[in-house]
Amino acid sequence: MNETNLSGGLEALVQQRPDAVKRVFVKTYGCQMNVYDSQRMTDALAADGYVATDTPDDADLVLLNTCHIREKAAEKVYSELGRIRRIKAERAKAGRETLIGVAGCVAQAEGEEIMRRAPAVDIVIGPQTYHRLPDAVRRARAGNRVLETDYALEDKFEHLPQLREASVRGRGVTAFLTVQEGCDKFCTFCVVPYTRGSEVSRPVAQIVAEAERLAHAGVREITLLGQNVNAWHGEGPGGRRWGLGELLFRLAEIPGIARLRYTTSHPRDMDDGLIAAHRDLDVLMPYLHLPIQSGSDRILKAMNRRHTADDYMRLIDRIRAARPDIALSGDFIVGFPGETDDDFEDTLRIVRDVTFVQAFSFKYSPRPGTPGADMEFHVDEGVKSERLQRLQALLTEQQGDFAAGLVGRLTNVLIEKPGRSHGQWVGRSPWLMPVILDEKPGEIGDIVDVRIMRTGANSLFAQAV
Ligand code: 5AD
Ligand code: SF4
Fold first, then answer.
1. Which of the residues 78, 141, 422, 427 has the least number of beta carbons within 10 Å of its own beta carbon?
2. Interval between CA 66 and ligand 2 midpoint (Å)
3. Is ligand 1 within 6 A of the CB of residue 196?
4. Mutation to probe ligand 1, out of 67, 187, 189, 379 (largest number of atoms < 8 A from CB)
């Protein structure tokens, strides 16, 4: 199965016999890893003649790739299932079968409940087992309901068909590549160790081969993904375990790859090798997503983060010494059980001390089965909202300051796609922010020098130089 290569075959079938083609609609919730997983699942189904469609209305298979990280994520899935069930009923009247599948982290956490609560669902499949999706679809088409949430003993990546070059090309010049999955850290708020399982690192050879395929299909920028990506320690040639810094140096050698990134990191795993990569590798973008969650040592301890605010500050100092122009991004949770006004002030203080160019902040949401959910002194929702507002105001101000500080500066962008307005082109800055250009400064995939002229709501405007 490993060598399945369909490039061309499926595309020809679509043109010659559109009636023989089955359509799959995948809706993705949550993190970038889910985006990557959706792509891999779509590719795996291509071997059975499925092409992707962007509406559920004409889909023979609707797949929801779900997220369980916060409350509303799962609720959205149940309401979406209601909508899709009606489409399924409509299509059935016209004699057309629609299979419904639920994949991802809600599937893993609540598989049996989904089966009970949503009888229209045909397949429930977890993030660790989706290499078995084509088989699950075959069984569902034969009239079975399929629940696949047992952790697989086999390596799913060994069992998935290789990336399809045609799909990669269709997705543009940037790509995700999962190198690590799962988590052994057990932060007390987090459901990931339960939905994604324990930490697994893909071996070097597998990652390099996938990156080479991406490069061959025209990808210029790769973002390495992992729930704890900087804890990656994959097996290298000869059996020695590598660290992420070493891997980045190896990937930088691949012809065509001009930019590398990685996300999401834990402060405890920023080792010297990785910091050295930031110092020495130009292709490693000067941007780092390094969540701290809270600025209060008391709350950090209750969250089981296993570092203090001061540890984080000293780490940032070391990273900035290695790469002075690095831009930092973070995640924050407000209203963790027991968080007082003083604890929250500590969070505002560390945000002021560090300065983030980008951030994601959330109200604490108790996740069933996690230690945080059973803790005492849950914070009132109103207090959470108020704290979130104050934190977001500060973070937005920092983002605005950062963007304003770029005006007049020279930088480079990766040309990605035409813009929304006629004649405009969109590129990606080293700091991820989209850059709008008034005219086409080169070909898609080129990296061109530009001068930032002004800032927009969530973008920058620039001119080629
Ligand atoms: N409640 C609120 N936010 C959470 N996150 C993870 N779990 C929870 C939760 N239970 C946030 C963290 C994490 C990001 C991906 O989501 O900030 O870094
Ligand atoms: Fe959501 Fe976490 Fe699962 Fe990603 S890994 S989909 S963020 S629960």
1. 422
2. 8
3. no
4. 189
Cβ-contact 319, 270 below 8 angstroms:
yes
Return the ligand 2 atom nearest residue 34 CA: 6
Residue 296 Cα to ligand 2 midpoint, Å, equals 25
Nearest residue to 433 via CA among 362, 380, 377, 357: 357
The amino acid occupying position 274 is L
Q: Looking at ligand 2, which atom is closest to the CA of residue 33?
A: 4
**CB distance 70 to ligand 1 below 6 Å:** yes
**Test site for ligand 1: of 32, 68, 70, 358, most ligand atoms within 8 A of the Cβ:** 70
Smallest Cα–Cα separation from 187: which of 300, 350, 325? Answer: 300
**270 within 8 A of 238, measured Cβ to Cβ:** no
Lookup: tokens for 19: 């009636």
Cα–Cα dist 248/252, whole Å:
6
Calculate how far, in angstroms, residue 349's C-alpha sits from the geometric centre of ligand 1: 20
Q: Please tell me the residue having the least CA distance from ligand 2 atom 7.
A: 31
Q: What is the pLDDT along the chain (465 residues), one digit of tens a residue?
A: 333 344 456 777 677 776 678 999 999 999 999 999 999 999 999 989 999 999 999 999 999 999 999 888 788 899 999 999 999 999 999 999 999 999 999 999 999 999 999 999 999 999 999 999 999 999 999 999 999 998 877 889 999 988 888 899 989 999 999 999 999 999 999 999 999 999 999 999 999 999 999 999 999 999 999 999 999 999 999 999 999 999 999 999 999 999 999 999 999 999 999 999 999 999 999 999 999 999 999 999 999 999 999 999 999 999 999 999 999 999 999 999 999 999 999 999 999 999 999 999 999 999 999 999 999 999 999 999 999 999 999 999 999 999 999 999 999 999 999 998 889 999 999 999 999 999 988 999 999 999 999 999 889 999 999
Grouping H, G, I as helix, E, B as strand and the rest as coil, residue 400 is helix
**C-alpha separations of 441 from 32, 114, 243, 409, 436 in Å:** 29, 50, 38, 17, 11
Q: Which residues contact 271 (CB under 8 A, 6 or more apart)?
A: 230, 243, 245
